[in-house]
Amino acid sequence: MSDTVSLRLNDQPVRIQVAPDRTLLWVLRTDLGLTGTKYGCGIVQCGACTVLVDNRAVRSCSVDMKSVDGKDVTTIEGLAKGGKLHPLQEAFIAHDALQCGFCTPGMVLTAYDFLQKHPNPKREEVIAGMNDNLCRCGAHTRIVDAILAAASVMKGGTAS
Amino acid sequence: MSNDPTPVREPLSANLEPDMHPPTRREFLKRFGTGLMVWAVFGPATGAQESEAARPATVRPRQTNDFNSFLHIDENGHVTCFTGKIEMGQGIITSLPQMLAEDLDVPIDDVEIVMGDTALCPFDGGTFGSMSTRSFGLLFRAAATEARGVLMELAAAALQVPVAQLTTQQGAVVDANDPSRKIAYGQLTKGKKIERHLTVKPSLKAPEQFKIIGKPMLRRDSRDKVTGRAKFSGDLRLPGMLYARVLRAPAHGAVLKNVDTSAAQQIEGIIVVRKADLVAVLHVLPDVAEEAIEKIHAEFEPSASRLDDKTIYEHLEQSKLQPKVAAHGGDIEAGRALAVRRYDQTYHNPYVAHAAMETHAALANVEKDKATIWASTQTPFPAREEIARTLGLPISSVRVITPFLGGGFGGKGFNLQAVEAARLSKETGRPVQVMWTREEEFFNDTFRPAAVVKIQSGLDGAGRIAFWDYEVLFAGDRGAAQLYDLPHHRTSVVGTFQGPPGIHPFSVGAWRAPGSSTNAFARESHIDQLASMAGADPIEFRLGQLKDPRLIRVLKAAAEHWAWKPGKGPSGRGLGVACGSDAGSYVAAIAEVEVDAKEGKIAVKRVLCAQEMGLVINPAGAKIQMEGCITMGMGYALTEEIHFKNGALQDTNFDTYALPRFSWLPKIETVILEADHTPPQGGGEPAIIVMGAVLANALYDATGIRMLELPMTPARVKAALAAKA
After folding, report:
1. Residues contacting residue B631 through CB under 8 Å, at least 6 positions apart
2. Which region, left, alpha or beta, applies to residue B288 given φ > 0 means left and ψ of -120 to 50 means alpha?
3. CA–CA distance from B315 to each of B264, B305, B307, B352, B450 (Å)?
4. Contact yes or no for B445/B439 (Cβ under 8 A)
5. Together in a domain, A40 and A99
6. What secondary structure does DSSP assign to B24-84, as a single string?
7. Nearest Cα residue in chain A from B4
8. Are B133 and B618 in contact (CB under 8 A)?
9. Residue A89: which of B226, B357, B408 has the nearest Cβ?
10. Could you tell me if A148 and A110 lie in one domain?
């Protein structure tokens, strides 16, 4: 059974005919061709599938399409605006805050949400805020450094 | 954003028109037409050796290697290098071009690297064993040096000056006497067809001449990875493709009795494939295939296995396999007689999962007489052979392309998912993608083997180790041989890290530094206890019985950077030490822990790791690998183990299988010791081997309890504390 779901996806209006109980993760990755959102566990344990729904980090493996009807969805592909990377993306590059890069989209978008709530974070707060995202390569310390540096840039400071 | 399906990632060199044959030199020549081509082969000419011992038998090449490395300079001066190695996060996408750019004297941005494509790259047995830089990189350097020599000769003729008067910089040959006279590499090769095959070992640049090697470089793939552009195998799309879900048994050893797929077949668009050993459902949407697989009713004969994670060690110890002596020195019985105090112990390591964040994935397009497979694999060439055999196609008709891997750690050397995708594509006549669920990933994993190490030892009257009789069962001999300078010792090995088949209830295989972390845990725990019995500081005790200057150096460096104050364990400070050697590198670590006695929880406060790995190509990349090893290593030390019973796994996702997290993070310090005149050694594995022992030793120093089994879970720590009290 198909329904029309309307949403803003990466700043573009999208109308899609889709079974309303289908999972956002798979609709993004297949119907919409946005494969930057990754499958890691399917049970809200790893964070690789994190996207922003109305600017809040959400695990897309646990969200169905009807719940994003009328919402604003941002995937990793939509974070850079007009060819300019977001400070978090710049900081992840500058700090080598990744190895295989599979968890990276989820890390960046989780950090995006975190920094909205904690524009001036302490290191321990970053650690607590990122704790439900898994990385197997062990890039954790660099991810924390990158988030702290991005926070500084976003406040108008300079990257450290 | 676009609603178009994501295009399949083009091969890095889209201007090439790859045919389906395994590349031979003649075909490469035909393909490239003009330019400068240099071929290099492992062997005496380059000083590079691929260690046979380091690679699993299944991925040893079955064909003679025409060449292993290949470099091309086109008439625009653009450099392309080709390697069958793959990028899985370890960073050779940066360090290999860095080596080539150094010896060729070109800007690194002008160097393109094509990896893991069996139609474009020379044969390679696989990416494992920390071999890429230490062995393969030398080939790139040699090829680059040869190419540079050719370019100098061409320039000497063009500029009418002797070669000795020429130098190279930034992709051009320059007259040293008149730097305004220079000629770009591209101009020199324009319209020419020059082929060189390395026969004489070229003299590589000396470390004093390095401009690019040894300089920290950021990863070259980060931009694509932070924007979602980087394509992994599961991200690739082809027109008309199907997504498959494969029926799995509930337990290893369970055999399918009967299967009813009628309910699944009711779902619109579902295609069912039923073969004796392969039952799958396919659909144009992966989530619908998922829904269909759940509607299959299947009955299995239960597994005959009666083992579980408690009884496995007894089972392993009762194997009838004869130990083989891997190393020995002195007279073990004479040593035994010299011991005034004995310390004998047995150490246990459980099965541990690879748990790469990317599950195994492959996209296969099998046509009438050829097949193309994009796969997350550490072994694209062996995968090609296996797929060709399965499909009944000649090897030359199968092409395996390797996109980025989302982690490997030794777990992506077997290519079941690629074979499944290929078989299903052949059956359906359409492109098929198989991307395992996390549960399938655990079920099909080739775990780090459960293993037992038994050590008999004793101290002599002077508090030195009188003898050391070491036996490792089923972890393999990597890292088992004695590091210390002991008068009477013996190292015996039963089985390997791969079995033999039948000994384990499921598949096992290489797990980052196979065998080494198990051996280092046992050896360094045991040494630590002997130090304590001798009333000695653990670092001084080790140094007093070491002769290997590289090991002494890393141990001293670790102590110095830590600001170590000697003390006899258990000192209550919660400080541990461990050292080891792996992949040609030397490593020493010191850690500090805090123990919550009520909860049994170990908090790691600080880890310092000193490593000497020969010449370091990219110090930034090497440091990241060490940090990764330290962080990943905390997992097998503290929480990671596979629980199972009668062939069925009880840990199948991250809800119960606990990986290291941000909240575990200690302060991590890495010390890289300069050794520019030693050839590059492995950097991606050594630091992980010490993590079990360094944390066990820190726990002992904090509490006086000696953990003989990993992981040191809160339950085990609590039980040990209670037993001590």
Report:
1. A138, A140, A141, B660, B664, B665, B668
2. alpha
3. 41, 11, 8, 18, 11
4. no
5. no
6. -HHHHHHHH-SEEEEEE-SBTTTTB---STTS-GGGS-SS--S-SEEEEE-TT--EEEEES
7. A33
8. no
9. B226
10. yes
Torsion, Cα B693 B699 B702 B704, to 10 degrees, reads -90
Q: Is the domain defined by B312-352+447-724 classed in CATH 3.40.50.300?
A: no
- Say if CB B243 and CB B233 are below 8 A apart: no
Neighbours of B36 (CB within 10 A): 25
Token readout for B314 is 């007894």
For residue A70, what is the enclosing H or E element? none
Minimal CA separation from A93 to chain B, in Å: 5
A159 interfacial to chain B (CB closer than 8 Å): no
Distance of alpha carbon B576 from alpha carbon B332, whole angstroms: 29
Query: Cβ contact (<8 Å) for A101 and B230?
Result: yes
All residues of chain B having their beta carbon less than 8 Å from the beta carbon of residue A102 are: 232, 356-358, 406-407
Q: pTM score > 0.90 for this model?
A: yes
Three-class DSSP category at B472? strand
- Is B414 buried (19+), middle (13-18) or exposed (0-12) by CB count in 10 A? buried
Burial class (CB in 10 A: 0-12, 13-18, 19+), B62: exposed
Q: Measured between alpha carbons, how far is B204 from B144 in angstroms, rounded to an integer?
A: 9
- Fold agreement between B233-302+360-435 and B312-352+447-724: yes
What is the helix (H) or strand (E) element at residue B372, kind and residue range? strand B371-375
pLDDT in tens, chain A (160 residues): 789 999 999 999 999 999 999 999 999 999 999 999 999 999 999 999 999 999 999 999 999 999 999 999 999 999 999 889 999 999 999 999 999 999 999 999 999 999 999 999 999 999 999 999 999 999 999 999 999 999 999 998 665 5
Residue B512 is classified by DSSP as S
- Tell me, yes or no, whether A63 and A120 share the same domain: no
In a domain, A52, yes or no: yes
B438 touches chain A (CB under 8 A): yes
Domain ranges in chain B are: 25-227, 233-302+360-435, 312-352+447-724
Residue A93 within any structural domain of the chain:
yes
Instruction: Give the pair of three-digit tokens for residue B563.
Output: 């600001």
One domain for residues A147 and A117: yes
The sign of the torsion formed by the CA atoms of B191, B197, B200, B203 equals positive
C-alpha dihedral sign at B371, B375, B380, B386 = negative
The top-level CATH class assigned to B233-302+360-435 is alpha beta
Domain that includes residue A15, residue range: 3-78
ipTM confidence:
0.97
- Domain B25-227 part of CATH 3.30.365.10: yes
User: Looking at the domain assignment, is residue A47 inside a domain?
Assistant: yes
Mutate to test the interface with B, among A60, A75, A96 (most CBs of B within 10 A): A96
